[in-house]
Amino acid sequence: MTQSNRPVEDAFAASLRTSDLTDKQQAVLTACLALFSRKGFDATSTKDIAQLAHVSEGTVYKKYRSKQGLLDALLAPLATVVVPRLAKEFMGEIARNDSADFRAFLDFIVRDRMAFAISNRQLIRIMIGRVLNDPQMLTTVLGQFSDAITETIEPILKRYQQAGQLVDWPATTIMRTIASTVIGTTMPCILLDTADLDIDSATAEVVDFLAKGLSPGESR
């Protein structure tokens, strides 16, 4: 498991430590993240949150008023601080695991992101629901990834293109193609509790599909 696949909770805790929230308020949001990720938003009660945070239910309601208020307070730093931070760490992992072979590059990205998506499926499901009601959150997240692609990924992809291993498309188009394929493969597991995914088999299939589809010969 790479550094960028560390628990989201760690990055979230780091963001809370730099906030102006009290210790009890931080404990409440930390409990929300753990419970929403494990049980889902609907199945989590404020009593559950209070017990895990070691505070009274009155303390939970004092600042956040409702469970929806808790969700809003949780997702805001996730979108603006945690996701960009994890994205930056992942880009760093890509640079450190740079390979001369494009297929190996694909294998690293696909396997890493599939593992991340499956281990954080409940939280991703919650964020998907929020994005549908707040498109600005999606714009914020995608903007962070666009900057990271330009700074880190584009030089790597250009080298594969110069070596004749990769179709001559813009870096954003290539990464969007990779991302959409990974998302399409993992989405059933994210949305359906009964679905499962063999990451090794799925990675092999997706890498084979992308390696063929993104090769210069296939693009003509």
From TrEMBL:
Coiled coil: none annotated. GO terms for biological process: regulation of DNA-templated transcription. InterPro entries: Homeodomain-like_sf (IPR009057), HTH-type_TetR-like_transc_reg (IPR050109), HTH_TetR (IPR001647), Tet_transcr_reg_TetR-rel_C_sf (IPR036271). PROSITE patterns: HTH_TETR_2. It comes from the Bacteria. Keywords: DNA-binding. GO terms for molecular function: DNA binding. Residues 45-64 bind DNA. Residues 22-82 form the HTH tetR-type domain. This is TetR family transcriptional regulator. It comes from Bifidobacterium subtile.
